[in-house]
Specification:
Blueprint lengths: L1 H5 L10 H26 L8 H10 L1 H14 L2 H21 L4 H29 L5 H16 L2 H5 L1 H4 L4 H13 L18 H6 L10 H25 L1
Helix pairs in contact: 2-6, 2-7, 2-10, 4-6, 5-6, 5-10
Amino acid sequence: MLEEDSKKTTLDLFKPKRLRRNMFVMILLWLSMSGLFDAHVRNIVNLNYSIYATFTFSALLEFPADMLTIWGLDWIGRRWSASLAFLLSGVFSLACVFAFDSSVVVVAFSLMARFVITYGMNTGQQIIFELLPTELRGQGFAVVNFVGIAATMLSPLIVYSSEFVSPSSPFIILGVAGVLASMLPVMLPETAHEALADTVEQADAFGKDQGFFHVPILNKHLDKKANSVQSIHTQVTVLER
C-alpha cells in the first residue's frame, strides 16, 4: 500500500472525473480570489481621497474580517460564505460607479468591498485546502497557488485602466468579476463538519450526497430536530411496552 501511494503524482488529481472538475473550479476560484483581492488593495489609488487615510482604514478592516471568518466558516459554511462575499464585493464595487460624484460614498462602498473580499479570500482558501486529498495536498495546492500568483500580475492592469479607459472602469471590472466569481464556490462540495478525504479516491467521492443548498447551520438544526423526534418516538415505544 505504501509503495502504491508513493507513486501518486499531481496528475492523479486530474484523472477521476469529479475530482478533475473540482480541480479546475478550485484553480479558477484561487485565480479569482487572488486577482480580486490584490486589485481591491491596489484600487485605493483610484479613490478621490487621502491615500494615507484610505489605506489605514483598509488595513484596519483586516482584523474584523478575519474574526468574522471564524464564525462564518462554522455556521454558513465554506462555499456559501465565499460565494456571498464575492457577490457582495461585486455589488459594492458596482455601487461605486453610480455614486461616482461623491468621493465619500465611493470610499465607503470601496471599503465595504475590501472587507467582504478579505472574508471571501479567507473562506475560499479554507475550502481549497480541505478539498485536496491528504496524500497530494501539497502538490495540489502548489498547482492552484501558481495560477493564483499569475493572476495577481493582471491586477495592476485593472487598477490602472482608469487612466486609459475611464475613471470608473476599475470599479466596473471588479464588480462584474466579483459577481461572476460568486458562482464558483457553490460548484464545490461543502467541507464544514465533514470527514475530509485522505486519498484521491475519497476526494473524488467527497460530497456526492450533498444538495446544492447544503448549509451547516440548517443541517445542524434539521439533524437536531430529527434526533428529537427519534428520541420521542423511542420513549413512546418504551411506554407502550
